[in-house]
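Board notes (copied after class):
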Amino acid sequence: MARGCIPIVSNKGGLPEVIQDFQNGFLFEKGSVNDLIQKINIVINLDVQEKSKLILNAMNRSKVFSIENTIKSLNKELKDLMSGE
């Protein structure tokens, strides 16, 4: 995502928390080869404008999970724990 790839991931585990279907990537039904093939075909057939929008959305979403943001979030949680909040 951070490098401009459109993610196609299964809809199980933590991935649906990161990927919003048809917004910044695609979710397919875990274990469904047909659904995966359908999503791959959608990406192949996107026009340039749709593909650019998805790529930009994916790159922006990936920033939420950057190491810098993760460290900031963990530091805030630790400070809150230490202060008793």
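Comment from the instructor: The longest strand covers residues 8-10. The beta strands are 8-10, 26-28.
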